[in-house]
TrEMBL record:
GO terms for biological process: carbohydrate metabolic process. This is 4-hydroxy-7-methoxy-3-oxo-3,4-dihydro-2H-1,4-benzoxazin-2-yl glucosidebeta-D-glucosidase. Keywords: Chloroplast, Disulfide bond, Glycosidase, Hydrolase, Plastid, Signal, Transit peptide. GO terms for molecular function: beta-glucosidase activity; DIMBOA glucoside beta-D-glucosidase activity. The lineage of its organism: Eukaryota, Viridiplantae, Streptophyta, Embryophyta, Tracheophyta. It catalyses: DIMBOA beta-D-glucoside + H2O = DIMBOA + D-glucose; DIBOA beta-D-glucoside + H2O = DIBOA + D-glucose. InterPro entries: GH (IPR017853), Glyco_hydro_1 (IPR001360). Homo- and heterohexamers. It is found in: Plastid, Chloroplast. It comes from Triticum turgidum subsp. durum.
Length: 372
């Protein structure tokens, strides 16, 4: 059964379009083309822009480890990157000059709490307070992502990160620090950015940290299990999200008046051909990709097609967890970059081993992309 969602789902679309603010031309958009109250903004992640990777008490994330081992496509690291840590005032002035209404950025967990739990890094706290204050000073809304892929390496080393339910407790404690420290000024919270892609890159094909996969689905991974680990990692991200939302609603929302949600990656899948098999593959792939998180958020369980095809490898959502997950959002963000073509593959023989794409009976669509 394909996904059907009620109108209560609010989808927030972030536009990364400086062209929308350009002078009016026949072929250009301006603010006048958008309804009143439409928020124009831009977004970044901490590891991509902050730099200062080893300064003022910050410790490595799994992305630092990944890039320093030479696994980025060009061998580069983000040790310096755009150096926003040192130039945030200049960056905010540029945002103001361009005319942005909002800036979505992520907190670096290993900058704020370097060991993943315990002591707060005062220099990290100071940086984010200063950035938030600077944005507000220039009339720009701070939209904060709590987790954007950069798990502290200390937690990966201690208990394998997202594969352990201990992640949920540590993430919730970290989110609590964020709410307590910044919630008087931050009114828009994103718990997790694109939780429906990190489990694939990190635990199925090994293209992203922590580089876990198993043959024949990934290349050169030292360890992992592509048949089970993507579903375990995603499950713990989902429960961590729900835990943080529950905490915010119980402890902070009434006093702070903010909104909290999650942002999913929205690769849309269309049939690669006009065959019934590919048409069905596109529906399945949208359920596996978007429904993986959207369905439990709205209905309290994973999509029926995933339950059927993944079986016992897909973690259970017992009643207490289901109730906590269902409705755990004030909004759902949707990052839509491209359209993929879904090609059906025959798995009727019970192919083993299996991974996410074999379970979906869809050829990995990354080789057939339509950009938007």
């Amino acid at each position: 059964m394909p996904m059907i969602f009620p109108f209560s789902v609010v989808v927030a679309v972030v536009l990364f379009a400086a062209a929308a603010l350009a002078p009016r031309h026949a072929s250009a958009l301006t603010r006048h083309d958008f309804p009143e109250g439409f928020v124009l903004g831009a977004g970044t992640s901490a590891y991509q822009v902050e730099g200062a990777a080893a300064e003022d008490g910050r410790k490595p994330s799994i992305w630092d480890t990944f890039t320093h081992q030479g696994h980025s496509s060009d061998g580069s690291t983000a040790d310096v990157s755009a150096d926003q840590y040192h130039h945030y005032k200049e960056d905010v002035k540029l945002m103001h000059k361009v005319g942005l209404d909002a800036y979505r950025f992520s907190i670096s967990w290993p900058r704020l709490i370097p060991d993943g739990r315990g002591q707060i890094n005062r220099k990290g706290l100071e940086y984010y307070n200063n950035l938030i204050d600077e944005l507000i000073l220039h009339g720009i809304q701070p939209h904060v992502t709590i987790y954007h892929f950069d798990l502290p390496q200390a937690l990966q080393d201690e208990y394998s990160g997202l594969l352990s339910p201990r992640f949920i407790e540590d993430y919730t404690a970290y989110a609590n620090v964020c709410f307590k420290s910044f919630g008087d000024r931050v009114k828009h919270w994103v718990t997790v950015n694109e939780p429906n892609i990190e489990p694939i890159g990190g635990y199925d094909n090994g293209s992203q940290p922590p580089r876990r996969c198993s043959y024949p689905f990934g290349a050169d991974c030292a360890e992992g299990n592509s048949s089970t680990e993507p579903y375990i990692a995603a499950h713990h991200l989902l429960l961590a999200h729900a835990s943080a939302v529950s905490l915010y609603r119980e402890k902070y929302k009434a006093a702070q008046g903010g909104q909290i949600g999650i942002t999913l990656l929205g690769w849309w899948h269309e049939p690669a051909s006009d065959t019934p098999q590919d048409a069905a593959a596109a529906v399945r792939m949208n359920d596996f990709h978007i429904g993986w998180f959207m369905h439990p958020l709205v209905y309290g369980d994973y999509p029926p097609v995933m339950r059927s095809r993944v079986g016992r490898r897909l973690p259970a959502l017992p009643a207490p967890e289901s109730a906590k997950v269902r409705g755990s959002f004030d909004f759902i963000g949707f990052n839509h970059y491209l359209i993929m073509r879904a090609r059906s593959i025959d798995t009727s023989s019970g192919q083993e081993p299996r991974d996410y794409y074999v379970d979906a009976a869809v050829q990995n669509p990354s080789s057939d992309i339509t950009t938007v």
